[in-house]
Design brief:
245 residues; 7 strands; 7 helices; alpha/beta
Length: 245
């Protein structure tokens, strides 16, 4: 299903790898007009070349810096005159047991996983309100629905994404804006590489032996975007068939 994708102006954060890259590839194939942001500019530029994106369609973006997120969205409006969709995808998962006191990693998760989403909303919302149309897609996680030992802070950030998204959904109804939360389970990305605790990293590596390709996420994005204007897909929760957690 790609109906409704062609010519939509889509901004994706965290687009240099994993879920963001997979979404960019599938949406480009469907004819979307992409503007991509991530910290790793070399990877963004390589992706832009592979997808034959126009000059200026990538912006080096650290989502913890509000001005950089605003610049990313502004680039989309500058190039295409509007923004139809923002995919707030950038995230990290340096999970650990609370007793390890990896406080700096907790703070980084809060900054990227929560504030990064809020900055994306703040950058896109004024344009969407002015247009009387738009679609905000926020990436949460199965961990936003449940938690386990070592996952308290990461789960808290992803639960926050779901709460923020639901509040946004209710607030933007007068402006004809749609909202979607996508909550993946174990998907093959670089996410587990952000875990620094050796014992926890080993457990995550084993858990991710059943991980499914990142294109599974991209298909969920396309499904949400492809609905008729009067259909608002508010949440998609998916896992590998073999995943118990």
């Amino acid at each position: 299903m790609t109906e409704g994708i062609e010519n939509k102006v889509v901004v994706i954060t965290g687009a240099s790898s994993g879920l963001g890259e997979a979404a960019a590839r599938r949406l480009a194939a469907g004819g979307a007009k992409l503007v991509l942001g991530a910290r790793r500019l070399d990877r963004l530029e390589a992706l832009a070349e592979a997808l034959k994106l126009p000059d200026g369609a990538v912006v080096q973006t650290d989502v913890v810096k509000r001005a950089e997120v605003e610049q990313l969205v502004a680039r989309a409006v500058e190039l295409h005159g509007r923004i139809d969709v923002i995919v707030n995808n950038a995230g990290l998962m340096p999970s650990s047991f609370l007793e390890k006191l990896h406080v700096e990693e907790w703070e980084r998760m809060v900054d990227v996983n929560i504030k990064g989403v809020l900055y994306g909303i703040a950058a896109a919302l004024p344009h969407m309100i002015a247009q009387k149309s738009g679609h905000v897609i926020n990436v949460a996680s199965v961990a936003g629905h449940k938690t386990g030992p070592g996952g308290a802070v990461y789960s808290a950030t992803k639960h926050a994404v779901r709460v923020i998204s639901e509040g946004l959904r209710q607030e933007v109804k007068p402006h004809n804006i749609r909202t979607t939360i996508i909550s993946p389970g174990a998907v093959a990305t670089e996410l587990t590489q952000t875990i620094t605790d050796p014992a926890f990293a080993e457990g995550a590596k084993k858990a991710y032996t059943i991980a499914i390709p990142a294109d599974s996420f991209a298909r969920a994005v396309v499904f949400a975007m492809s609905q008729p204007d009067d259909v608002d897909i508010n949440e998609i929760l998916f896992r590998p068939t073999a995943q118990v957690y």
